[in-house]
Amino acid sequence: MKKKHWALALPLYFVGLLLAWLFSSWLAELATERLSQSLKNEAQEELLLAKSQLESALFRDVFLADSLATVFTIDPDEAFQNFESIAKQLMSKSTFVRNVGVAPDDIIRKNYPLAGNEKAIGLDLKSLVDQYPTVLKARELKDVFLAGPLELVQGGRAIIVRLPIFYDYPRSDNYWGVISVVIDYTRLMESAGLLSNQQYTIAIRGVNGSGRGGQIFEGGLDTFEQSDYQGLLIIPNGEWWIAATFNVALNDYQKSAIILGQLLLLLFYSGLFWGGFVLWKLYRTERFFANEDVLTNIKNRRFALSYLHSLLSKGRSSKFAVFVIDLNRFKYINDNYGHETGDELLRRVALSLAEVVRGGDVVARMGGDEFLIIANRLNESEAQKLAEKIKRYGESLPITVGDEQIYPSLSIGLAICGEGDGTPENLLQLADQRMYRDKTACASQPTELHQS
Questions:
Q1: CA 253 to chain centre
Q2: What is the mean pLDDT of residues 58-77?
Q3: Which 3 state secondary structure label does DSSP give 174?
Q4: Beta-carbon neighbour count of residue 232 at 10 Å?
Q5: 413 pairs with which residues across the strands?
Q6: 138-162 pLDDT, tens digit each
Q7: pLDDT of residue 167
Q8: Interatomic CA distance for residues 283 and 278, integer angstroms
Q9: Domain containing 407 — which CATH number?
């Protein structure tokens, strides 16, 4: 390469390299943002799934507890006598219930299981300043009410399901007492996966189902202030409000992949630049777009199509015709006599076609064993005569293989300018269809390929 070419190429390369680096840095930043957003979306999906599982599990155990209240509503005194067996069934079917207490006139008389809860027997709920308002709330609603989460004296955190019992409800408002079902809050949260998932950090507020304006009982205020997500968490006859921040920092593998992508982009630019430089040099020394077919030395497909387009675009008043010509049984000759013989036959046909047409006409090889002739200033009858002449002359010139002479066999289809919709494609399609009809007719007539 000449020095002046290098003097031009090197500054351009380094300027392009700088631009490629800036572009790759922008792409890396964009990839980081999109990956972070993808991780956020994934974390939010996990959070919503865990939230749904929590709601489902809580409603299930509350529904079971409510069925216990239904039994007491039917006959409070009879149910009280059989409390242990009824509570045992509830415990066996529930997932997170720790114990069940029944309090006629709001004084705890029975607990199941009793072990560990003996001190609660005889406790007057009215003496519990923090908890008794939730009993009154359930009584006021005449429906289930969730208290808490709160810290238990015996340890752990729990949600207490308050279920008011009335004599002959709903026809009577005569209050009998309350059933308290203790649900293990920690196990409930762990089962849903809200506390153990590394993709997010949560906080929840709404003690006693007070919702968005309630007290925070899980996590901290900073999670609400910096949250990526906030939403409603539905509980029976109340609501909690949940917030979450998503942990979307890229790991080492993801960071390495982005850096590798930058390097690959720079390598791609370098290869593209120097590859283009070499092609540019080749372009200066060779004809990059040739108009001739190398094998037959006649015009090629590119030239023929361009010429046909130019004829139609000029809107000439003079007629012209296109002839699509195909060699019959060319594959047989290739397979049985070899590709060199096939190439020689193509050259011979190309020569005969060039000899039979006028100087201003175009003869081109379209590829394989297909040729095209564009003949100017012909009407339909003249085109038919030329087609017969092409076939007669083209099939009269054999090639010699050993002591055999192989004669070409041609199928020809022609179309006249003005036929069809006037587009080059349609004109060629018409000629092609007629050529195949001629080929079918030729196939039905036995033809000798060679003579000894």
A1: 23
A2: 92
A3: strand
A4: 14
A5: 324
A6: 999 999 999 999 988 777 899 999 9
A7: 86
A8: 9
A9: 3.30.70.270
Q: Are residues 350 and 418 in the same domain?
A: yes
Q: Are residues 318 and 254 in the same domain?
A: no
CB within 8 Å of 447: residues ≥ 6 apart? 328, 329, 409
* Measured distance CA(240)–CA(215) in Å, rounded: 10
Specify the pairing of strand 110-112 against strand 97-104: antiparallel
Q: Of 388, 293, 400, which Cα lies nearest the Cα of 341? A: 400
The residue that leads in pLDDT, 425 or 316, is: 425
The radius of gyration of the chain's CA atoms, rounded to the nearest angstrom, is 46
pLDDT of 290 > 80? The answer is no
Say yes or no to pLDDT of 253 above 80.
no
For the record, the structure tokens of 373 come out as: 């002739």
The torsion region of residue 73 among left (phi > 0), alpha (psi -120 to 50) and beta comes to alpha
Domain span at residue 418? 299-451
Q: Which residues contact 192 (CB under 8 A, 6 or more apart)?
A: 50, 51, 53, 54, 57
Statement: residue 116 has pLDDT above 60 = yes
Contact criterion met (CB below 8 Å) for 86 and 79:
yes
The whole-model pTM stands at 0.54
